[in-house]
Amino acid sequence: MVSQLLIAAVVGIGLGVFLQKGRFCFVHAFRDLFAFKDSRVTKGVLAATTLTMLFWSIAYELGYYQGFWTPGWGLTGLVGGFVFGIGMTYAGGCASGTLYRAGQGYLHFWLTLAAMGVGYVVFTLLFPTLQTVYFEPLTFGEGVSLFTVSPVPAPVLALLVTVGVVVVYATVVGRERQQGAADQAVAADGGHRTSAPVAGFQSLVHGSKQYIHGFREIDDWVAASKRPWNPITAALGITAIAVLWFTQVSIVGVTGPEARWTGYLLERVGFDSGSYTYWGSVLFKGEGVRLTVDMVMITAVIAGAFIAAFWSGDFSIRVPKRRRIPNAVGGGFLMGAGSRLAPGCNIGNIYSGLAELSVHSFIATIGIVAGVYVMTHWIYRDVGCAV
């Protein structure tokens, strides 16, 4: 138990550092892609998920893993994921993004965490009814990871999926570049001068100067460590930490441990959390309301984000603007409730779930991304979105 708590602290702090330094948030990954065609964080998410899938498949094949998280599949993932996607976009941060920004000093996201707790409580109170009117009719099959039923070795399957992702991504990017070149040609034929070549040349010169400057400062690791990191760099670090957690404890999750924290804290103030089916039998598995290693891990994420932000000079207590409070409260509540209705959040389903090739998580990911898409278009309804 002591060794697992130590691993939880190391993993949580490491995740907090990489999330904060890479500004690694799934809302940014999808909202920025839909609104502005900005794919920087999206590429980081793809890299982290596919790399984790590859390493997890090897660990599974060799027997060095602590089990998969595979809820039953059906429309619960689609509905709950959609609610969660709406909520995280409205709140302005996903489950992991909320944690690292809380560690960075944003009171907005502490309020979001509190509202998520309310969502967990409401779900728990309604759980007996939801079992019969929601989960049972909308769950169609047993939870399964494709790694466990594949006729080919898990690493081979993971490699095939990775190649497919790369081909699809390259095809999409190639078409966008062709369209951009065609638009420039049309502008040139119309007698209109375009600044794209000049801008491209200036970007090249500017990039070269940055490279030379970076090369000269390669030994100044302190200065480099205080600058924001490329999301791909953060993805590599997150992958390494996720492999450690997968081989020693479980897959990476956020909202499940948060829901346990909610029941645990209520138990400490005299509320009999363990008497409720969802906390007592489902989340704590009938072993009593207690502190678990994954609860320690997500707490350490906040600590790691604080350390990274403080070191970089990014930490400060930021009071939310009054007009943003409904976003924190409403979005947080939908995130808490939606993550239980799915079940699972962006980390449990998009990152970990896809990395373990969970059938449930494929469906939930569609719901989450659809929720982000709809809410992004509503938020930017006055100016429109790029996608």
Topology:
Blueprint: H1 2-21, H2 26-36, H3 40-62, E1 73-74, H4 75-91, H5 95-103, H6 107-138, E2 139-141, H7 146-149, H8 154-189, H9 196-216, H10 221-226, H11 231-248, H12 255-268, H13 277-283, H14 293-312, H15 325-341, H16 346-355, H17 359-379
Antiparallel strand pairs: 1-2
Fold and architecture overview:
This protein is mainly alpha-helical. It has one domain (2-176, 224-379). 74% of the residues lie in helices and 1% in strands. The chain is built from 17 helices and two strands. The chain has a two-stranded antiparallel ribbon with strand order 1-2. The longest helix is centred in the middle third of the chain and has 36 residues, at 154-189. The termini are far apart. 45% of the residues are buried. The model is unreliable at 191-209 (pLDDT under 50).
Short key terms for the protein model shown above:
single chain, 387 residues, mainly alpha, two-stranded antiparallel ribbon, 17 helices, 2 strands
What would you say about this model in short?
This protein has helices at 2-21, 26-36, 40-62, 75-91, 95-103, 107-138, 146-149, 154-189, 196-216, 221-226, 231-248, 255-268, 277-283, 293-312, 325-341, 346-355, 359-379; strands at residues 73-74, 139-141. By secondary structure, it is mostly helical.
